[in-house]
Amino acid sequence: MSVHIHEVNENRHEKFLSEGRKDPFTKDKLKAGDRIVFCAGCKSAFLHSSWEAMRGKHCNQIETLADFPYTPRLGDVTKLQQTIQVLTNESTSQQGKIKVLATLCCLFTGLIAVIGYFVYDQHQRINNLQSLNLGKGSQISNLEQQGEQVKQKLSTLNNKLTSDNCRNDSSQPKNIAEQVTFFETKLDCFVREHQDLINERDSYKNERDSYKNTLSGYPYSLPLGSEVNYRGELSTSNQESNPILYRLYVPDQSRFDIYLQNMEADGDFEILDSNGNRVENSRSTNTGSDELRNFNLSSGTYNIKIWNHSSDRSTYFILRVYRQTLFREITPSP
User: Fold this and answer.
1) pLDDT in the model for residue 218
2) What pLDDT sits at residue 74?
3) Which of 9, 133, 180, 248 gets the most CB atoms within 10 Å of its CB?
4) What is the mean pLDDT of the chain?
5) pTM for the structure as a whole
């Protein structure tokens, strides 16, 4: 599941900073420049490091807000409180009525705030759905076709699992020598079937990942100052000729930081343009990690190609793609 990370900006998030919020996990005060996430359930703000320490889960769910939430102003009740205090000092007999009036005012103000936030939240949800651009008939048709292909692959795998070719031989050995030969043959058969099932599994996992990527709304476009994390697995069959691809749509010229991390084998990645030409290759930083930082991409559709250099070791990985907040094009000096 994608984790939406926001960078707190001193100017754009002045209201948020004025609230003096603290990370519920570390109790540290949130400040400008912090990279934070918002729990989609309770809207609480966490440092990204705290969210990872909590294993990306809060309020019994793992969703995070894709947009920085806006908190409507609840109104200035200072003058109302002063008026209530004056009335209280003037006539103690009116205290009951004043308390009721203050309570009703607070409830009314809170109700307006809740309604305002609800309207804003629904508006944002509609914008997010429209941005996915999944309404085209060709994309729906492709999803349906890929769904049928996955179903066929599952059916083939199930048939393979239920078939017992190694046990169909009804002949029985008559002596010790025949029994030894019989069991050796059976063992060889089981080994072959085991390898066939491994190959079937790897093939299905690759198609499954491709299908999941399509369902997730690819090509995916990141907002400025946001990042997305993908978790995957590189098997020994995912060599450079059989890579895993992640599509990325760049609406406007931007700079990106891309990291391939948490690997136990020698993985690599590179950026391909829409014609399959290599744009840039990653740099190895240390064992189990590759990166491409402060890299400029023009508007267009790209593929992030990931493969395994190791032929005898599989590995899980995390692909992190971060689109920088502001792009400044550097003009060369004459």
Assistant:
1) 46
2) 37
3) 248
4) 77
5) 0.36
Residues β-bridged to residue 75? none
Which of the residues in the chain have pLDDT under 70?
1, 71-96, 128-144, 147, 150-151, 153-174, 202-203, 205-220, 285-287, 326-334
Rounded Cα distance, 20 and 62, in Å: 25
Dihedral pair phi/psi, residue 307, rounded to 5°: -145, 170
Work out whether the CA dihedral 256, 260, 266, 271 comes out positive or negative. Answer: negative
Give the C-alpha separation, 196 to 185, whole Å.
Answer: 17
Length of the chain: 334
Beta strands 283-286 and 6-7 are unpaired
pLDDT tens digits, one per residue of 161-175: 555 555 555 566 667
278 has which bridge partners? 272
Question: What pLDDT is stored for residue 238 in this prediction?
Answer: 92
By the 8 A CB rule, do 157 and 203 touch? Answer: no
Q: How far apart are CA 209 and CA 245, in angstroms?
A: 9
